[in-house]
Amino acid sequence: MNRFVALLAGLVMAVFASVSLAADTFRVLDIGEREYENGPALSVLFSEPLARDVLQGGFLQVTVGDGPADGGWVLSEDGRRLWFPHVEAETSYTVTVLEGVTSASGQVLAEPVVGRVETRKVEPMVGFARSGLVLPRGLSGGLPVATVNVPAVDLEFFRINAEGLRRFAQWRNPTDSMGLYRLEDMPQYGELVYSARFDLDPVKNRRVVRHIPVREISVLSQTGLYFAVMKRPGTFGYAYQSTFFMVTDIGLSLRSYKQETVVTASSLADGTALEGLLVSLFDDKGRTLAQGRTDKLGLFRSRDARVKKSVLIRGESAGGDLAFLSTRAPGNDLSEFDVTGRKDSPVDVFVMAPRDLYRPSEAVPLSFLVRNNDGRPVDVKNLFVRWVKPGGKVFSNVSLAPSGSSGYFEAVATLPGNAATGRWRAEVRLRPGKVRPVSTFEFMVEEFLPERMALDLSSDKTVLVKETAHSLKVAGRYLYGAPAAGNRAEARLTLRTRRACFPDGLKDFSFGLEEDADFLSVSDLGSLTLDDGGKGAFAVDEEAAKSRSPLSVTSEVSLFESGGRPVTRRFSLLWMPDRRMPGIRYGGGRGGTGELETHSLDLVVADAAGKPVAVKQLLLKVIRIDRNSYWEFNEGAGWQHRVTEKRYTFAESFMDLPPGVVTHDLTLPSGDYIVEAVDPGTGLSTTVSLSSGRGYGDGAPHPAKVNLLFDKKTYRPGDVARVTVVPPDEGEALVMVEGKGLLWARRTAVERDGTVVEIPVAEAWQSHDIYVSAVVLRKTAPKDPETPLRAIGVQHLALDREPRAMDVEVLVARTWQEEAPLPVTVTVKKKGQAHYGRVWLAAVDVGILGITDFASPDPYAWFFARRWYDVKGTDLFGKVIETDASLRAAMRFGGDGDISLGGGKPQAEVILFSKVLGPFETDRSGKITAEIPLDDFSGSLRLMAVAFDDTSFGAAEFETTVTPPLVIQLSAPRFLAPGDASILTADLTRMVAGEGDYSLRLEAGGPVCIDADAETVTLAEGKRKVRSWPVTAACDASQPPYGVGEVVMTVQGDGVTKRITAQWPVRPGYPGEARETRVRLNPGESLSLDAQSMAGLIPATVGGAVAVSTRLPLPGDAYVRGLLDYPYGCLEQVVSRAFPQLWLLPERARAMGIEPVPVEKRREILDDAVARVAAMQRHNGGFGLWSASGPEDPWLSCYAVDFLLTAREMGVRVPTEVLRRGLERQRTWLVKGPGGELRNDRAASFAVRSYAAHNLSRVRKGHLATLRTLFDNHVEDAADPLSVARLALALKASGDKRRSRGAADRALVLRPDAEHWRRDYGSALRDLSMTVALFTEQKIAVPSMADILDTLETNLRQTRWLSTQERFALFRLALAFAENDDTVSLSVAEGGESRKVKGKGPFAMSLSAKMLARGLSLTSTGKEPLFASAVVTGYAETPPAPMDERIRVVREYFDLEGRSLDPESVPSGTLMLVNLRVTASEEVPDALVVDLLPAGLEIENPNLEHSIRADEVVIRGKAVWRHAEENPLIHAEYREDRLAASVYLRRDHEFSLFYVVRAVTPGTFVVPPPFAESMYRPEIRGIGAGGRVIRVEK
């Protein structure tokens, strides 16, 4: 029989599945378990309502076991569902629906349907059913307790004392579970006043709510704060359900303003004001900060600043009624209201900038208008501007004086050529230091090129419903006016779930299914060629994959120039699966970690435009997720952890929704749930997940909203603002005008349909942080349980500033075709009359502004903008415990009782058009005139004018097209590498009438060649012709292969002669080589160098130096050049780069064989380094590695102070406060040692303490007793010679010569463990070099100098790469030797010529390829041994072979659908995803990963708005964004020719880095190898595969 039933059920369900597709067929939709009246029930859902005049029960059968189940069927209100209640838990039921069931429309069920239902287990459960805090005094009801199959509870009630009010009460989540360890403290926080057992009279398997009748218990009906602890009889645990509740009729509310604090008191019974209430405010120690009585409006006001520190407010009526309000309770959630804006400030600064995007080496000009918070004059003598780089490092600080009148200031910052890319900012302060800036201007620094075309996208649809089909219209034009006729456009379509589809009108609402959240579909729309008008259209008709959730349909279009470079824009439409859809906003849980928690939901049904609509019988389902976790043993895999999951409908209800938002509360037991809202008309659902009983709620659900409707948009003093207050229900309203204090207040009764309140606008209301607010209170016993107790409304009161508006007009030709300056006139008027003012004027290429969508500056909008609603408010009204007619619990008993990697970076000049003029003063007619030099510019210019006087402001913009008679635009790669071959493309357009012949001639210079013969082209009006010529890099062996190449194009014809220059750098595509030879020359021995010394190197790149000394010869030039070329900027690199320049005045540099840096450049390097170091100082005086907000690095902090001290000694200006705080921090380290990780590293701690001692002794602050203790008791901790050497110097400077000599002797014999990881960036070479240098400088004898020099020479010979620390130490040693060398005697033979050299050493000379080809020999002719060193540098003829010196680097390419690529040949425009996979065999926290680009490829810079992104592309089973999340970058720069990223490599963990490139310029290009190295241990490095060639096809 069982087998037959199973087969029948399967057959019937198959039939059911087949007929369910017919929408008009009357059928059974679902058979299952549902909750009916808070208990389990069987449910049968039909496709349409049933006939009520037919006894349907006879057609349904329920069997359990071998017989029928007891019970009967109940028809739901909507007629679509039959309930079979009172079923048993954990029981198997079979439900049979026979043919004959009749619908209201007369249809009869044609086939029987059988369903088997396994009812879920019903766990016993009990808990407090509400999360409120207040029980209104004197009203019916009690403390609600929810129970399922728990017959009784034991409750203990404590009355909280004053200490408990401050230290024990949980104001944020009053209902929680509390552990025994906390409950044991109860005697000190409160008195046990009542305990009893209460019968809950549960209904089997049903959740029922019973109310503990606390108001009928005399000791609990008294006013005060109580604490109740609940326990199931006969059970024990580590924590118990608990709740705080307050019995009172006083509703307190706190409003904290900048200038005052206001407490309001209202009756909980009827919402009226409570006059004469004694209000007291206490601090956290129970001291009274303020006290007073409320006025007739129920207000207590205090301007005492101490009140801001209050933690508790007590209200006490004359009759003894008490109420308490914690100032630390959650504030009112105002996210539904428009209360955002910047914080109001007495002094306001408006920043005028021509743009917000710059390239390195550019000047950034800013202008500032200083006013008060209503745009009126304010006396400010100086402004202080701090220029801050990405990561928070300070670039420079400047002090500004006014420029003329009207509070106008100007500042200009010139960015260095190696400026960090990313987001910079200019912070404006009224005084120097770490005070909060009054204004901040952010701008980007990137290696960008201006756009040359405008791209506009549009559609024939505004929103898509059911279908995605629409026409995507494309319009392209060159910014100089010509249509982009014949240009190619490509498009991609992305479909992505958009659950927050109405962010403006329905903020924080979710629409659609959570399971669709990750839906993503990307497809190509193909390509098209724009017509003669520069127009085209893509037909979009992508399948929406039968999505049941809203989608964002985004088209991404790239329009290509003739040279291959694109302009990209996006266009998005909202797609809805039907005409309307339900939405849910989860407001959080308001409970603790107990068995029950109340959750707030906002529900709405919105149409496709986001407008709420009314819906009847919205189904709200609560689905519980039960998870079972267990271990399972498998012979093959061993023990495996498994998780099974079961979902079932826990509860459901039907709701009628008005055309608006409805708030609904759910009280749920502990567990995981999905809440689903189902629209009965469309069948569409929205789901939201939540966890109950886990304390995730913040206790601040969205309050009900009061609408405030103003009769006018703006108001003037003397006006009467008529504000209509529209609450969700009638009640008593407190209407307030609020700013920095309470400005006006009134209480009034308000009706549900709206009540008008008249507000007189006062003369004193002169700021823009003024708001009208309304709090509407209804009576505690509501007719409608869903109606909120308290509703809130907030609306900005806008002041009329139209009389202070200037009408500004920019008068300029819409099209300018003259090759002459552009004349511009700006007129300024007020009320139609000419007006005097000052005018700031800027003209900027639209091709720059469009990259960031820059908005023109507008001071009127800035000064009169809405400010932030700066009112902190909390109250008791949202914490009232709602009561209903639930049964009371019966009392049973109770009673009273108790970065230089990869070669040099490109430095070609990029010409940008951006000019700032003025400020000008208008003449009597209110005009200014100016001429703007155009400098051969062609394109669109945005002219931005800002006019101002002391109190009035205006702004205007105008775009003009600059169209010379002949427009020439050149396109080329942004850089090249030797061996690359590409093309130079020229677009030539005649923009005047008629036809003309033009001759073209091209000439190349520098390391590039062009194959171009002179030619003539004929151009007609408005027509564009494209010419291309082959270009090759490093084509002339007689010329240096690197540098800036250029092609000059000369065009003549029709009376026009133009010379256009295209520049691009040629840079190496891989790291250079340094070949070092070191020998000891005894008398008569020689060092010989010849052509073999440079074998395999490109001759034109060969350089180097040779040095001979009686000490160790060191090529100081190579060390200094290596430091200067290092482009990356952590604290260590900044200091190491600049440190040598302190000594390198031109004479000294030349004496050392070092190419001197120009004086101005040297000063710039040093000033910049001091500013950067100062910017990295932390609040405690130490320094961070990358920024002041980063972790402190003690050793580097000492290194930084060493640099600052030396800089000050050399005459460089160093901030005194920075140095003082740095030395104070080091005094702490000297005495106590550094903390953190170094506390347990004795060697690292000693290194820091000895370095601090050295620095402090230089300013006579080294305490001799401490230094002696450090030597006597801790010198054995030292693990390297340099740390002991620094202590020797400190002891010498402090006068203890004996211990100084002892420390020096120990330093000279100590050798570090090469295998030991160093926290001081050191190495054996660095330590010994710096030790000898310091001793030589300070005249400390080095008896074993010869042996030490041999050791150093051996270390140098064995070292392949040098860190920045080693480079600087070797420079210091070279410097010391240069000033303390003996006589050098040599015979120098070069080719066939020889000469004698004799003089004080060292002897140094530069090397070249020509010299090496001829041969060079140096022979010792003296009596003492000499040390000779030769370094030959250059770039190899072939790329370096892959290398794995503890780091392995692999590069892979993918398309944007995640398919692997091997890009030997790609069409121009192709997008590729680059993946660098880096693995280290040991921890490398300071790894630098560099990927040099092939020249025809360009990075899609993710820092720019319109760049292509690939975050959702799946590679090796993970989306790119997930890879990035698991492999965070410390710092990344997206340069023109490379990606450089600082990363932390963990041992044997693959670091995966992604970025997007686009093939742009046609040609064949060498693919450089990727590489990575430790920045401070360069012997740890890896080089990936390179040397292949990639071809970009046109």
TrEMBL record:
<dbReference type="InterPro" id="IPR011625">
    <property type="entry name" value="A2M_N_BRD"/>
</dbReference>
<dbReference type="InterPro" id="IPR026284">
    <property type="entry name" value="A2MG_proteobact"/>
</dbReference>
<dbReference type="InterPro" id="IPR041246">
    <property type="entry name" value="Bact_MG10"/>
</dbReference>
<feature type="signal peptide">
    <location>
        <begin position="1"/>
        <end position="22"/>
    </location>
</feature>
<dbReference type="InterPro" id="IPR002890">
    <property type="entry name" value="MG2"/>
</dbReference>
<dbReference type="InterPro" id="IPR021868">
    <property type="entry name" value="Alpha_2_Macroglob_MG3"/>
</dbReference>
<dbReference type="GO" id="GO:0016740">
    <property type="term" value="F:transferase activity"/>
</dbReference>
<dbReference type="Pfam" id="PF11974">
    <property type="entry name" value="bMG3"/>
</dbReference>
<dbReference type="GO" id="GO:0004866">
    <property type="term" value="F:endopeptidase inhibitor activity"/>
</dbReference>
<dbReference type="InterPro" id="IPR041462">
    <property type="entry name" value="Bact_A2M_MG6"/>
</dbReference>
<dbReference type="Pfam" id="PF17970">
    <property type="entry name" value="bMG1"/>
</dbReference>
<dbReference type="Pfam" id="PF00207">
    <property type="entry name" value="A2M"/>
</dbReference>
<dbReference type="Pfam" id="PF21142">
    <property type="entry name" value="A2M_bMG2"/>
</dbReference>
<dbReference type="InterPro" id="IPR051802">
    <property type="entry name" value="YfhM-like"/>
</dbReference>
<keyword id="KW-0808">Transferase</keyword>
<dbReference type="Pfam" id="PF17973">
    <property type="entry name" value="bMG10"/>
</dbReference>
<dbReference type="InterPro" id="IPR041203">
    <property type="entry name" value="Bact_A2M_MG5"/>
</dbReference>
<feature type="domain" description="Alpha-2-macroglobulin bait region">
    <location>
        <begin position="706"/>
        <end position="851"/>
    </location>
</feature>
<dbReference type="InterPro" id="IPR008930">
    <property type="entry name" value="Terpenoid_cyclase/PrenylTrfase"/>
</dbReference>
<keyword id="KW-0732">Signal</keyword>
<feature type="domain" description="Alpha-2-macroglobulin">
    <location>
        <begin position="910"/>
        <end position="1002"/>
    </location>
</feature>
<protein>
    <submittedName>
        <fullName>Terpenoid cyclases/protein prenyltransferase alpha-alpha toroid</fullName>
    </submittedName>
</protein>
<dbReference type="InterPro" id="IPR049120">
    <property type="entry name" value="A2M_bMG2"/>
</dbReference>
<dbReference type="Pfam" id="PF07703">
    <property type="entry name" value="A2M_BRD"/>
</dbReference>
<dbReference type="InterPro" id="IPR001599">
    <property type="entry name" value="Macroglobln_a2"/>
</dbReference>
<dbReference type="Pfam" id="PF17962">
    <property type="entry name" value="bMG6"/>
</dbReference>
<dbReference type="InterPro" id="IPR040639">
    <property type="entry name" value="A2MG_MG1"/>
</dbReference>
<dbReference type="Pfam" id="PF01835">
    <property type="entry name" value="MG2"/>
</dbReference>
<comment type="similarity">
    <text>Belongs to the protease inhibitor I39 (alpha-2-macroglobulin) family. Bacterial alpha-2-macroglobulin subfamily.</text>
</comment>
<dbReference type="Pfam" id="PF17972">
    <property type="entry name" value="bMG5"/>
</dbReference>
<dbReference type="InterPro" id="IPR047565">
    <property type="entry name" value="Alpha-macroglob_thiol-ester_cl"/>
</dbReference>
